[in-house]
Amino acid sequence: MGALQSGLYVTATPIGNAGDLTLRARDILSRAAIVVAEDTRVTAKLFALHGIGTKLVSYRAENAARATPAILARLGRGEAVALVTDAGTPHVSDPGAELVAAAVAAGHKVFAVPGASALTAALSISGLAAKRTLFAGFLPPAEGARRAELAELKSIDAALVFFEAPHRIEETLADMAHVLGERRAVLCRELTKRHEEARRGTLAELAAAAAAEPDLRRGEIVLVVAPPAAADPQAAGEGLDAALRRALATMRVKDAADAVAGALGLPRRTVYARALELKADA
């Protein structure tokens, strides 16, 4: 078998189950000159299981600026360099995108070595039908910024997929229920691992479960949220006042309008105007 073509090989590794490493990925990782890894300790365990002995080089946010020139120099000498993250495919929450951009800018070839993906794994078991899917990544950690971003996403006619840290999942689900309304969702936790779980329900139900069950606040989490319901305008109109009155009993006008608009799939401006009328008449 000949040497690998020079270039940067962006290589997917398992998101949990070590058996999900593809045959091609194992071959690339075994034959590359070096493997650039987010956490060499994590990747070393995977290598030990698969009998891979290639040299590992650390590449994380803290040292990316210093390490990038050395990696580009190796590519310039005609070497094959593989890039991996701790799990899945480099790009989302690691500095992989920056290294790819630097390699492209320097004129080096970049190859995709696809494999396990938490995004597609969660979608495949969600059972939520949608014509489109939007991957929204991680939401902001601060409540105000998080709610603002959710407000921007709520009218999009697509299933929404998010990654979230376990220590923020309770607050995130509560904000989703508040802003997006009564949508169905699936909380996928520890995909492909021993304690894999897919919890289904409305956003409010999942928020309550996360508050009550510590296990739902552990591990790697992917959230899949159904698109906004395609509400029948007449039926929605008939239920609008009742929904607003219930919401206004415990919420400010703005928050009540946000919640009801998301639940009924109606324009926020229309719902807000009606909420103001009901509030004035009360």
Strand order of the largest sheet: 3-2-4-1-5
Number of domains: 3
CATH architecture of the largest domain: 3-Layer(aba) Sandwich
Number of strands: 10
Shape: elongated
Mean pLDDT: 90
Radius of gyration: 23 Å
Order of helices and strands: EHEHEHEHEHEHEHEEHEHHH
Can you identify the CATH class of the largest domain?
Alpha Beta
CATH topology of the largest domain: Cobalt-precorrin-4 Transmethylase, domain 1
> How much of the polypeptide forms β-strand, as a percent range?
15-25%
Terminal CA distance: 80 Å
> Which parts are unreliable, with pLDDT below 50 for 5 consecutive residues or more?
231-236
Please give the count of helices: 11
Question: Can I get a quick summary?
Answer:
With 282 residues, this protein is an alpha/beta fold. The chain has helices at residues 23-31, 40-50, 64-76, 96-105, 118-126, 143-153, 169-180, 203-212, 233-248, 253-264, 268-281; strands at residues 7-11, 34-37, 56-58, 80-84, 110-113, 133-138, 159-164, 184-189, 197-202, 221-225. The chain has 11 helices and 10 strands.
List the helices and strands and how they pair.
Blueprint: E1 7-11, H1 23-31, E2 34-37, H2 40-50, E3 56-58, H3 64-76, E4 80-84, H4 96-105, E5 110-113, H5 118-126, E6 133-138, H6 143-153, E7 159-164, H7 169-180, E8 184-189, E9 197-202, H8 203-212, E10 221-225, H9 233-248, H10 253-264, H11 268-281
Parallel strand pairs: 1-4, 1-5, 2-3, 2-4, 6-7
Antiparallel strand pairs: 7-10, 8-9, 8-10
Helix pairs in contact: 3-4, 6-7, 7-8, 7-10, 9-10, 9-11, 10-11
